[in-house]
Specification:
11% helix, 9-stranded antiparallel sheet, mainly beta
Length: 123
Amino acid sequence: MVELEFFDSSSKYGVIKATVHKTGKLGFSSGASKYMNLEEMEHINIGFNKSNPDDNCLYIVETNEETDKTFKIVQAGEYYYVFIKNILKQLNIDYKNESVIYDIEKMTVDGSLVYKLCRRERK
């Protein structure tokens, strides 16, 4: 007997990525907006993996509380973005002269939904 399971179509969300603009905004593609359900979010926390200094990914967690550590999600039409200029400076990322694109995937950490943003390697 053959038991088939089918893959999700990549067209379900489209391209799931976030791109850093020259202004220091992290802009989410329409596919990422749908994938992350950004229309339902107001604030996020952005962190890093302190237990692994070789992990260059960013980690996003939705939060309802506005604190000194939260970032407000801004909407312009169907487009969502977050100002992360200070994070980019702390990480020594030359976003003004380099193309900075992050691929996004879901994961669970301590029972909470987390979005992992891994920077695309330049080829």
